[in-house]
Amino acid sequence: MQKRIKITDFGAPELDVYARLTENQLVNRADPAHAMFVAESPLVIGRALDAGCRPISFLMEQKHLEGKGQALLERCPEVPVYTAELEVLTQLTGFHLTRGMLCAMYRPPLPALEQVCAGARRVAVLENVMNPTNIGAIFRSAAALNIDAVLLTSAGSDPLYRRAVRVSMGTVFQVPWTYLPEHWPEALHALGFRTAAMALREDSVHIADPRLRAEPKLAVVMGTEGDGLASGTIAGCDYTVRIPMSHGVDSLNVAAASAVAFYQLAALV
Predict the structure, then answer these.
(1) Of 12, 80, 153, 171, which has the most beta carbons under 10 Å away?
(2) Handedness of CA 132, 252, 218, 182 (dihedral sign)
(3) Could you tell me the end-to-end alpha-carbon distance of the chain, in angstroms, rounded to an integer?
(4) Per-residue pLDDT tens for 10-65?
């Protein structure tokens, strides 16, 4: 029988995950088995459940008990549900819950690089991409444009930050991902990938160069906002690739560039 609790005490420790813990506290690096994240909206929560993520509790508007959230609650009959009217939830969480439903979940263990890349033909590498909104948008493009996996450096933003999950529309649970080892170019080469650094340089090849699409296994390497890829990273890649620009525009936002690159560099059927 599902336990449904109407919120009367804002200080209840069960609500800390929604109202008081920072993103870094949720990650809980000291105790990874109890690390958490928060999924927002029925669509995103459903995709997380489909991916096998384990829910801890729900926080939602009262009206969604018999509305959009009902089917999700039926999938999780033992998980407690905290409810309140929208005005109360806004006070508690500090922002307007436009989709009316949150779910705290345990973070799933990350797979090894070899597992993520098994059978993959196209992967995205994100070097120190810091903005959670960009991370989420890149995952959404990756899901839509046939990228088999996303690989991240540890200095970048976390794909399970709430904003990243929300912007991705839950595709962070559909596209396999993991963090890269320190010497990742060598690791990818050992797995049979050629690497393509997205950078505007005089020695760059055009993104429509047929050699790129013909590569059986290609890693598309994107850099951090502002500075782009490190010079050492570019030097270690097999290709340097440019997206042609016009009207004096010198570059695209990394999320926009990823969509162009993923579409153009899809593997030949």
Answers:
(1) 171
(2) negative
(3) 50
(4) 778 888 898 888 888 998 877 888 899 999 989 999 999 999 999 999 998 887 78
